[in-house]
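cron nightly-structures :: item 1 of 1
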Amino acid sequence: MSCTLSSKIALSLMMSASLLSQAAAQKSEQDVKAYKQQVTAGVESRAKLAQEMTDSIFSFGELAFQEVETSKYITDILEKNGFTIERGIAGLPTGWVARWGSGKPVIALGSDIDGLPKTSQMPGVAYRKPMVEGAPGHGEGHNSGQAVNVVAALAMKDLMEKEKLSGTLVLWPGVAEELLGGKAYMVRDGVFKDADVVMFTHVGNNLQTSWGAANGTGMVSVKYTFAGESAHSAGAPWRGRSALDGVELMNIGWNMKREHLRPEQRSHYVIPDGGDQPNVVPSVASVWYFIRETDFENIAKNFAVANTMSEAAAKMSDTTVERQIIGTAAPRHFNKPMAEAAYANILEVGLPKWTDDENSFAKAVQKAVKGKEDGLATELKKLAPPPEKPESGGSDDIGDVSWIVPTITLNYPSNIPNLPGHHWSNAMSMATPIAHKGVVAGSKVIAMTGVDLLTKPELVSAAQDYFTNVQQKDQKYLPMLGADDKPQIQLNTEIMQQFRPEMQKLYYDAEKYPTYLDQLGVKFPELTAPQ
């Protein structure tokens, strides 16, 4: 055979192989598209479940570490759908991990579950109306994220069974996020050690995700308890050593120090125990600080300053001081390849189609809190590069997870723009058609991005490469917890014992009522209070 003929045959074989490869790739793309259509249909078929979960968890309204009804409700649903449940993880009685499937990739889906103090609010009314006066509620919207994840996971499970796709689905709750009191313990105790990727969901007012270093802060939540000696405040005050003096001296010192800290810092405190009554010198008093900064180095630095200040205050007041870490949160850094994949699916899903009633309600709520009255979001936010220098702001302990496994957060449009946050007005939409539509939209994006991760090993590899070689190039995870620190699971016990009996009377009965608004007798939207 001549050299020329051999070359022609070889070239022909190479071209044939290339065409076959392209055909296979095309078939794979077609398969992925078909798989996404299947999971989207699976989410839509579970819209009723999404509504029931969103409304039920809203009605529980449980505070950090006390999410008993919420965790039982979610795990019961997952268990009935074939997931195995491990409860009480990382020393968290309301913590759990639910697993289904086998093999790689291991996709972990998480969302927070706790509420906020004094944010009890009737949903679907655009004026202040507590369901139970003084009680906690979902004044941030943490009642909705688990609905996003569970519905997406069940749709993915259907696809994986039908198409025999390898992979493991892992669901978990953000316990006590409002106290930054759960995820760092989960990280420390190895809950995510086998996860390949994490998709986290959090309520928002648009359908969006991000990558890189996020705006906001990391933080340490720490309580300083001073101990002195009691005495009669009028009869023999010289025999007392006031623990409250220690607290006040520390606070004075910290407030003076603020001027000489970086502008990026944020710090705040409350005095949970200031003594018993004025005529008894306080033998015990405590102050609880959130110490926030934008990077690990400065969080640790400011925490050290606070510790020194507490010790100095104790010396000045002739008391002793002990500190107790309640929780920590690392600065957040999200994964670029995963965010880009999720954003492509966001463009496919789009924002919900809002009705005139839903927009009128949103504008009435905005008016009630003196916010800009422009209604619900109608344009998707673009996937933008991260800020050159992240700005200070709030914290979220998903940051700790983001430093041990490639992670993204998806925000979904179940809340209303231009509200204060951590406020009763943020509860107003959270058991209404606005929340239900937002949950379904978010669930579609999670399920579709799950398909990408299940069918494209190169996406998981790219996520890991970014995590290792970009995210951790100049900064490594710095845990703030010590080996002996434990979750403060006693917190909020008394508050829930006080309010739960009245709150239980208003738990949503999904078997009896189509929606929670129906059960409460709310004719959505109620724009003004009855005269």
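cron nightly-structures :: done
The chain is about 40% helix and 15% strand.
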